[in-house]
Amino acid sequence: MYPLHDRSYKRLFSHPRLFRQLLESFVEEAWVKDLDFEQCEKVEKSFISAHYKTTESDLLYKVKIQGQEAYIYILLEFQSTVTWFMVVRFLHYMSSFWLDYAQNQPQQKKLPAVFPILLYSGDDQWSAPTDLAELLEQPHLFHNYTPQFRYFKIAENEYSQAQLLKISNVVSTLFLAETQYDLELLKRELLNLFDREVDKEAISLLLNWFKQLVVHGRRETEDYEVLEQVYRDKVEAKQMLETAIAKEREQLFTQGKAQGEVEGWTKGKEEGKVEGQADLLVSLLEMRFNSLTLAQKQYIYELEATQFLKLANKLWQAQSLQDILDEDDQPQGSS
Predict the structure, then answer these.
(1) Which of 15, 77, 197, 290 is the most exposed place for a label (fewest CB within 10 A)?
(2) 283-295 per-position pLDDT tens digit
C-alpha cells in the first residue's frame, strides 16, 4: 500500500499546478501570496532515512519569495498510525538538507529558509505535537540553547466535505477521494474540474492515481471505468464543438468580404447550415444537462446566428442549463 502512495503522490505533487494548489488552498500563511510560482524548481533529492522509506517520501522545491531564494520541504506520510515523535524526525531531515546545502555550496555563509510541510493521508486523526517544545519535559530549562522548531501540518482527514467542495480544485478532489469516498460525488467534481481547470494534464494525473488504486485492489475496477468514461465524454464533446466551430469559421473566412473582413456567424448563412449548428448545440447540451424540453429546443432552433455562437461559447463555463439560456441571450421580442 505504502509504495503505491509513495510513487503516486510524488508524481502528483511533482506537477507544478498541484504544488501550487496545495500551497494556495491549504497553507494559510501570508508569504504564499508573494511566492513566484513561475520560478518554482523541484530539487531531485531525498532526505528520508532508509528505515522509513516504506512509509514516507519527500519533495523539495526551490522557490522565490519577493525575489529571495527559499525552499519548501514536503514530507509525505502514508502510514495509518500517528508517529508521536515526528517533529524530531522532521528536524533531522531539515538538518540533513542544511548539511547537504553547506557541503555543496561552501561559498555560502548563511543557510536558506525552509518551510516544512507534513502531508498526512492516513486514517487515524493526527495527534502528535507539531512543535518540538511540546515534547520536552522542561522546555524552559535550557530555552536559549534548545532548537525552536515546528512543522506545518496538512492532515487530509481533518477537512470536512463542505470545506473540500468549496475549494473545488484537483488537490481538494484528491482529498475527497481519499477521505470521503463517494463515487457520485466524484463524478460531479470531475465534471466541474473539467470545466474550470485550465491544466487538463493535472486532471489526467488525478485519474491515473485513481487507476493505480484499482490496480492495487484499493478501489473497484468499475468505479475507475465510470470516472474515466465521464472524463472521456467531456473531452470528446469539447473536441466535437471546437472542431465544428473551427470548420465553420474557416468556411466563413473563405466566403468573407474581399478585403478580408470576417463578420463571423452573422452573415452568409443558409438556413440548412444554421439548423445543423442548432442540432449540434442541442446534442451537446443534452449530453451535459440531460434532455431539453420542447420549448428549450424551439428556442435554440429560432436563434439568430449571433446568439447561437454566444451560447456555444458559454457551454464549457456554465454550471447549469439556465446559465446558458438566460434572458440576456434571448432574441429581441422573445419572452
Answers:
(1) 290
(2) 777 777 777 788 8
Q: In sequence order, what are the residues at sequence separation of 6 or more whose Cβ sits closer than 8 angstroms to the Cβ of residue 184?
A: none
Task: For residues 318 and 178, give the distance between their C-alpha atoms in angstroms, rounded to a whole number.
Answer: 28
Vertex 50 angle, CA 49 and 54, to 5°: 105
Angle at 266 between CA 265 and CA 267, to 5 degrees: 100
- What pLDDT is recorded for position 281? 77
Calpha distance 279→287 (Å, rounded)? 12
pTM of the model: 0.68
Q: List 71's β-bridge partners, or say none.
A: 62, 114
Q: Is 61 exposed, middle or buried (0-12, 13-18, 19+ CB in 10 A)?
A: buried
Pairing state of beta strands 56-65 and 41-43?
antiparallel
Contact 306, 265 (CB under 8 A): yes
pLDDT reading at 127 higher than 90: yes
Q: What cell was used for 84?
A: 508521536
Asked if residue 80 has pLDDT above 80, the reply is: no
Long-range pairs of 35-39 with CB within 8 A, sequence gap ≥ 24: 35/63, 35/64, 35/65, 36/63, 36/64, 36/65, 37/63, 39/63, 39/64
Residues 243 and 193: their CA atoms lie apart, in Å, by 22
Q: Residue 129: which of 164, 89, 158 has the closest Cα?
A: 89
